[in-house]
Design brief:
Length: 393
């Protein structure tokens, strides 16, 4: 079964569903002190950058993180000011077993208290086609392999803030967009947009693939042609998330459409407050690739009205009658990210080619640079971080 077939078999909720993780999981611990005595620079403080730093810290290795924006987390961004639980503006679901969190923390003496809510097999999924709304059980529509879980009163970012950030926060340089990397000599030299240089023995690049596609970072010498071709060939999806608060809950767990799962994109509305200890009714919309365009090309009131109208058509005007407020995260507009993730239907060799290190100096970690036959999720980003750190330590 190819990844694409697997995603299709999983139906709508194939949104970032793991493939390789169905067949293998990564359980190695890396707590030993390494023989490597050099220094490491990490570009980016998202999931892969923070996890790389955490694994290096555990091994007693000298590192610093160079982050372009003024905060950490990258595509794990959340907001705590919309309602009374964190709203995940990027990564939302845990697509793999909860034991993955222990793999990231990588310290058996740490008790992880993060709580999750799984979906019940009898949970209702609605399907809207040609004016008709029909309902099915999650298990009937998405199959019994569906294991996605929601964070309860937390998020992927919350997990990283609690268990990873304390080890590494003092080593993050914010507002430091790297514009060039010179790896001709023994040391790697990175230069930021104000001309300041940083030097180390090894460099881990975790900047999003879209940022590399845009040529925002110049490499000297140029990257090998295999990397350059993979970067240019990669289909990277854009994406948008919208969260709407309503005074009544008129919607089911998921609402899907005939174009909810295609080779060029996906979209779904879902109960974003599912499992939360909250009275707030919050409906989420996530749209990726081509399916995101219809929402991204609008802004402000026009965008809100388009969404309410779409929901009103399905739910007899209940959306506009009970609307309170909404929040939008358009990932194509997010500085230094400009994208959602490597498309689900990308050829699997793109991610694995990009995961190859260069001259034992340049390493890639992140959702789109994985040695496994899967990509796109936080778990993929952190597993690639572990692989990279293990490669040179
Ligand atoms: C809409 C959406 C929904 C998603 N849903 C899920 C989900 O439910 N579950 C899941 O597991 N995953 C989900 N994901 C994917 C998940 O968010 C990503 O796979 C993961 O967060 C990527 O981590 P990363 O470290 O590879 O990249 P990023 O988080 O993008 O981190 C890269 C960092 O590099 C920085 N950077 C960029 N350029 C430079 C530069 N030149 N110099 C210095 N720093 C730079 C950026 O500012 C950023 O902080 C979703 C993503 C999106 C967008």
């Amino acid at each position: 079964m190819t990844r694409k077939e697997f995603v299709k078999a999983c139906g709508l909720l194939g949104i970032s569903v793991p493939f390789q993780s169905m067949f293998a999981s990564c359980n190695k611990e890396i707590v030993e002190i390494s023989d490597f005595t050099g220094s490491v620079m990490i570009i980016g403080a998202g999931a892969a950058g923070m996890a790389s730093a955490h694994f290096l810290a555990q091994k007693g290795i000298d590192f610093q993180i160079l982050e372009a924006s003024n905060t950490y987390g990258g595509r794990m961004k959340h907001t705590t000011s919309f309602v009374d639980f964190p709203i995940p503006l990027g990564a939302e679901w845990l697509h793999v077993a909860e034991s993955e969190l222990a793999n990231i923390v990588n310290n058996t003496s740490t008790q992880i208290s993060t709580q999750f809510e799984a979906y019940q097999a009898q949970g209702q999924v609605a399907y809207f086609e040609e004016g008709n709304l029909s309902y099915a059980n999650i298990s009937d529509d998405f199959g019994n392999d569906f294991i996605d879980k929601k964070f309860i009163n937390s998020s992927w970012l919350g997990f990283f803030e609690e268990y990873i950030l304390p080890d590494i926060s003092s080593k993050i340089n914010f507002d430091t967009p790297i514009v060039s990397i010179d790896y001709q000599g023994d040391k790697v030299i990175a230069t930021d947009n104000s001309g300041q240089t940083y030097e180390a023995d090894k460099l881990i690049v975790t900047a999003p693939l879209k940022i590399l596609q845009e040529g925002a970072i110049a490499f000297t010498p140029q990257l090998p042609s295999s990397h350059q071709n993979a970067i240019q060939d990669a289909p990277v999806w854009g994406g948008i998330k919208v969260f709407l608060e309503f005074s009544e809950k008129f919607y089911p767990l998921y609402l899907s459409f005939p174009d909810s799962e295609t080779s060029v994109g996906q979209r779904v509305y879902y109960d974003a407050a599912y499992g939360q200890n909250s009275a707030s009714n919050v409906l989420g919309l996530v749209a990726l690739g081509a399916q995101a365009n219809q929402y991204q090309e609008l802004t402000g009131d026009a965008q809100r009205d388009f969404i309410l109208n779409e929901l009103d058509t399905v739910f007899n005007s209940l959306a506009s009658q009970t609307y309170i407020k909404h929040i939008v995260q358009n990932w194509d507009d997010e500085p230094y990210i400009h994208s959602a993730y490597l498309a689900d239907n990308a050829a699997s060799n793109i991610s694995s080619r990009l995961s190859k290190s260069i001259e034992e100096k340049i390493y890639f970690a992140g959702e789109a640079y994985t040695q496994e036959d899967d990509w796109g999720g936080v778990h993929n980003a952190t597993r690639s971080a572990r692989d990279v750190v293990n490669e040179f330590t």
